[in-house]
Write a structure and sequence with these properties.
The complex is a heterodimer of chains A (about 300) and B (about 80). Chain A is α/β, with parallel strands linked by helices and about 300 residues long. Chain A is built from ten helices and ten strands. The chains are: A alpha/beta (about 300), B mainly alpha (about 80).
């Protein structure tokens, strides 16, 4: 562990300055994706009472990202969500969507107050892509989850990792899927492979940021100039994030997730520190001991563990 | 009190911790001055659509700049 290079630190929740906080409420998962930043399945679920206490103590209003491995594998997932709202924070659930293919489960999440879901769609609607990236032919379940999310009017973010020579046609396929399923309001997050935890593409072979821009331009029928005009702009008008470009597909659309938006993110770790977005003041992560640490630095330091 | 205004007030307190009074709404305070950022605004809009079971027009919403304009737009659904 080289804390000096990583510029690693931990703070109490009362000292929080992050706005986006990851809560890995479980390390269990019902998939075995080839790209997973926390592949260790032996860590116990996050203690709910300690989480509630933590939520009540965090300084500032934060976006709490309920995540895992697969957060819906925690049988008390809704209770964590309720605790977020009871303490006045924002909440998003990051999920592979397998459990959300059941309407009853989606209703439970809605009843807990959740309105914002991030659904991973690495293979879009293509089982061959899912098998190559996520080791499961699960397109049907993903599409059912998408339909259930739309039906309950959740705010929808989708996440698609572009793997070279596998799913480079995913941006276009995603748009076609959205057309078919009448998904008119969503943020499509397109990213490359991050070399953290378990991953299938080394940085040297990764699809680079400029290539991601080109793929989106070609397949989404927008110019590279248009996409690049959003480089170095504050995300959501709030955050500085050097490794992302956020833009609406319809020019002039002002309200995030109204209409279709795209966020291209470079998860490459081909820098000295070996993490995406080093020294980010935005992203924090709850540690095993209920402290707060910068997200990527913490994940890197605990690679293979927590 | 109109149904839509009541719903707006409830959503503001439940979802983004902002207590809206009639005075605040009528003053035409901007979203920014209310402390509503772009993430809050989408949360408010989605919740309104969900609670009232309506669809709001993107074009109209893009033109809405303050809480009074939003309340006025919603009153069309009363």
């Amino acid at each position: 562990m080289n804390t000096q290079i990583l510029n690693y630190y931990e703070v109490l929740p009362e000292e929080n300055t992050f706005v986006d906080i990851m809560a890995d409420i479980t390390h269990k998962c019902n998939m075995t994706c080839k790209n997973c930043y926390i592949p260790n399945r032996d860590v116990p679920d996050m203690d709910l009472e300690k989480f509630k206490d933590f939520m009540s103590r965090i300084a500032g209003r934060c976006m709490i990202r309920i995540v895992g491995a697969e957060p819906t594998m925690n049988p008390l997932c809704e209770e964590y969500i309720k605790a977020v709202f009871e303490n006045g924070h924002r909440c998003i659930l990051l999920t592979n969507g397998l459990r959300l293919s059941h309407k009853n489960y989606v209703s439970k999440l809605h009843n807990a107050g959740l309105r914002h879901i991030y659904l991973s769609l690495n293979g879009v609607d293509n089982d061959d892509w899912y098998e190559s990236i996520d080791e499961m032919r699960c397109a049907d379940k993903k599409i059912k989850a998408l339909q259930n999310i739309r039906e309950r009017k959740f705010i929808l973010d989708t996440g698609t990792i572009i793997v070279p020579n596998v799913n480079e046609d995913a941006p276009g396929a995603l748009l076609e899927l959205f057309d078919r399923e009448n998904i008119n309001n969503a943020l499509m997050r397109i990213k490359n492979v991050g070399q953290l935890g378990r991953f299938q593409t080394e940085a040297d072979d990764n699809v680079k940021m400029d290539q991601l821009v080109k793929l989106c331009s070609e397949q989404m029928n927008i110019s590279e100039d248009y996409i690049n005009s959003f480089r170095n702009k504050k995300l959501y008008g709030i955050y500085e994030e050097k490794n992302s470009i956020l833009f609406p597909l319809r020019e002039g659309n002002k309200i995030l997730n109204r209409g279709r938006w795209v966020k291209i993110t470079n998860w490459d770790t081909d820098n000295e520190i070996g993490i995406p977005d080093p020294n980010s003041p935005r992203r924090g992560r709850i540690t095993k001991d209920f402290m707060l640490a910068p997200t990527y630095e913490h994940i890197k330091l605990n690679e293979g563990g927590y | 009190m109109s149904k839509t205004k009541e719903t707006l007030k409830k959503i503001a307190i439940d979802r983004v911790n902002i207590e809206l009074t009639d005075e605040i709404i009528n003053s035409g305070t901007s979203f920014k001055d209310l402390g509503v950022d772009s993430l809050d605004s989408i949360e408010i809009i989605v919740s309104i659509e969900d609670e009232l079971d309506i669809e709001l027009s993107d074009e109209t919403l893009d033109a809405v700049t303050n809480i009074k304009e939003l309340a006025d737009y919603l009153s069309e659904f009363d």
